[in-house]
Amino acid sequence: MPNVVNATQAAATTTITGAGLTVGAVTTASSATVPAGSVIDQTPIAGALVASGSAVALVVSSGPAGVSVAADTTVSVNGKGTVVSPPISTAAAGELLVAFAASDGPTTSSQTLTVSGAGLTWSLKQRSNTQLGTSEIWTATAPATLVNASVTATQAAGGFDQSLTVVAFRGAGGTGAAAAGGAASGAPSVSLTTTRAGSLVYGVGNDWDTAVARVVGTNQTIVHQWVDSGVGDTFWVQALSAPVAAAGAIATMNDTSPTADQWNLAAIEILASTSTPLQVAVPNVAGLTQAAAATAITSATLTVGAVTTASSTTVPAGSVISQTPVAGTQVATGSAVALVVSSGLPQVAVPNVVGATQAAATTAITAATLTVGAVTTASSTTVPAGSVISQTPIAGTQVATGSAVALVVSSGLPQVAVPNVIGVTQAAATTAITGANLTVGAITTASSTTVPAGLVISQTPIAGTQVAAESAVALVVSSEPPLILVPFAVDTVVFSDGTGTRVTAPFRTAEAGEVLVAFVSSDGPNNATRQTVTVSGAGLPWSLVTRANTQFGTAEIWAVTAPAQLVNATVTATQSISGFDQSLTVMAFTGAGGIGASGAASGDRTAPSVSLTTTGAGSFVFGVGDDPDRKVARTPDANQTMVHQWVDNNPNVTFWVQGRSTLTGAAGSLVTISDAPTNSRWNLAAVEIVAR
Fold it and tell me: What is the model's pTM?
């Protein structure tokens, strides 16, 4: 890139085209150091490496900047009595401060104001107070930059409402013509003849009669207004909307309404400076962040101009690549400094590598000054193994050079995980297998002691195995559990004899599903009240099978099936009328199918006997009895045996359990439980325990 700074525009054009480049955008800017028509700045800068045919933008000098006057800052305050403006700061030294003050006043004398503050010497430029109140214009020049200064307006007759507006003007050459007017009624209006082209004209007024907003005349604007409804006054500042075109022009400040109030109005011309503006050196902000550059520029009493962005391989995003004017250029205070800010690395389009092999995709990505990012694999029914399924970012996306492009590469046809179907029904297993895009293979059956019939015992392949879609999964399904013959027999017998509630010693059963039968015989009162008992324990829901208690005492049979094996179980018999002796015998049966027939009988001075008709073949039959009168051992009849007996000497009572010595024959057989002696009172109950 050739250096064309300070060359004329024509010479710069010749040099640029001679270097195989083209002239880009050409803009102009004022310069106190570069002659009009010569190049102030170029982009790219001299020495930069660019492609042939690239454009070179030029900033060409239009000569020294003209001077115009403008408001730098404006503050206002409304209040009663003495008022102090909000803090005011100026952008540069030498600014003109103008105080526009309007105040209410007494009805018997004129009101006046005095302006002071900011460490400046203030001068009254115009006062209008022919009507009640006053409207005044005061000025002061700040030789140095002001920071958080304040201005005060003090009334000669204190305690009245007033409004103060302070405007700081840059590029001002002082004040020119001034005018004042006032009337008891009519539309406010005052005119002056300007003394210099480019001047600004401002006015300040007060309406002593009513609190109503002003409607300003043509090409004028309200700067500040206080419609003071508290006292019924209005205070305002207005200005021409644009600088006057030439000296000798009639400039009028006027309001079209209201038109029936008494008013005071003062106006003043703010002159544009004719002197050469103060020159400052443009600071070097290249390489600074945009925020830091803005701070440096405003600190040099300059302003930030146009900000554009450009990519850069060397300047971080957000920092300044170049500036116009270049650092060190002498320019007028308040001049604009344009910035080119880095947007980061140059942007390139991501190439389309979908469908290409991984190697070809890598070549295309690196050729685009990008890098290959994360590479992951995925199965595909359409993209061959080793080729790219997708990319991130997608093709055509603009990204910074050096950015990574992630790839998803095909691993071939999809693999699926075999689902876990063990323990589910064959139907549910089939649904799960086909839902996983697999098929049901060979189905065999096998008996199982743990898996219910119809549920899956095992599968091939096992759950979690990765296989190709549509592969077969073989199942082994549970049939009925293997037949295990359990003998029909008495597993265990426990008993407890004594007074009141009885609890057996702890016992255990051999297996789950055993039938427990409690044989209870108890003494009771020798009157019409009958004794009964209740059986509980082992965490089981006991049920009464039969009861014989026509004679004194009771003989009862209770039963329950234990779904699980019992360990350290106990059974309790509780009398309805406590305090009597009783005997509790509990028998557990393996291979039992439950309770069949039962019977109960009672007698006096006869042989104890009770009969039942069996409901099943090969059943056990047992009975329980009590003799409330005598303490005499029982003698079972033929083919019967005594299981347990308590000849209770204390109350002269006998309790016993007896049973058939062998299993019964066919269902429908009449079976009798009987014994001797034959001359006692007795209660006797019997039960059939059927085989499973």
Answer: 0.40
